Amino acid sequence: MNADALQSLKTWFQNYVQSCSLPVQEDQRNITIKHEHTHQVCLNAVRLAEDLRLDQQETRLAEAIALFHDVGRFSQYLQYKTFDDSISVNHALLGTKLLAEHNVLQDLPKHDRDIILRSVTLHNIFSIPRGLDEKSLLFARLIRDADKLDILRVVIEYFEQDEGDRAKAVALGLPDLPGYSQTVLACLVRGELARKEALTTLNDFKLLQLAWLYDLNFTCSLRMVEERGYIRTLADMLPRNEEIAGAVEIVSSYVGGRLKIG
Ligand SMILES: [Fe+2]
Questions:
Q1: Among 29, 72, 173, 203, who pairs with 180 as Cys (CB 3.0-4.6 Å)?
Q2: Global pTM?
Q3: Given this model, what pLDDT does residue 237 score?
């Protein structure tokens, strides 16, 4: 993809987001948070692409995927007032439909178009299916890491804000209770991802964010987790007890171990 092509995708996206503005402040906050998320995921994607020594064309492709990975979120919120796919619609598929309806990708080479649509579709599924070609796999891994890295930031900032200033849709409507699910904690201890359906409280949501670190594909992503201090910050937001501390220790040493291997 050349620089002009990427620039015109960015212009389309800016105009599209503008057209999704909402009059109620609380609604607009949810739109703004996804707009900023997209921007940060683009930055993460470019950093990963550079670290992986992708060429300029491929780096632009990675950025275009990041630009559109959550394009369905805006329409999802407009229609359903939620970011919870399980009670509304799969936002990745909604995004690919929207790109097609608006002919956004029509001027791109077919190969780029296919990779963008495939990567958007794969960005939010539980795990990447087997049998993908090498390039599809690379870009699917890249967007999944770039996205997770920024969701960690969004979640941390959500909890750092006063309740009145929060973009409510971020936390999927989970109750802020002192407890947490043993199932979700056990997943974290075993080095596994919990399913979203298992979440019962906001603490479970924080535990799931930590478990996502097991699913990061690239060493550079783990380095970014370390640089940004995400583990410590999230751990400080969880109940203080031995079992939580033990689980956090397991994730920390997992990340430390992978960074050592490089
Ligand atoms: Fe997404």
A1: 203
A2: 0.94
A3: 95
pLDDT computed for residue 96 by the predictor: 98
Ligand 1 centroid to Cα of residue 35, in Å, is: 12
Single-letter residue type at 87: I
Q: Are 60 and 9 in contact (CB under 8 A)?
A: no
Q: Phi and psi (nearest 5°) for 130?
A: -75, 165
User: What distance in angstroms lies between residue 260's CA and the mean position of ligand 1's atoms?
Assistant: 30
- Cα of 246 to ligand 1 centre, how many Å? 30
- For the record, the structure tokens of 119 come out as 């990567």
pLDDT at position 162 is 86
Question: Count of alpha carbons within 13 Å of 91, Cβ hemisphere only?
Answer: 23
Residue numbers of the chain with a pLDDT score lower than 70: none
Q: What's the CA-to-centroid distance between 240 and ligand 1, angstroms? A: 31
- pLDDT, residue 166, reads 84
- CA nearest 167: which of 180, 151, 186? 151
Taking Cα atoms as reference points, which of 121, 62, 63, 122 lies closest to residue 97? 121
- What per-residue confidence (pLDDT) applies to 170? 82
Report the alpha-carbon distance of residue 258 to residue 249 in Å, rounded. 14
For 70, phi then psi, to 5°, come to: -115, 25
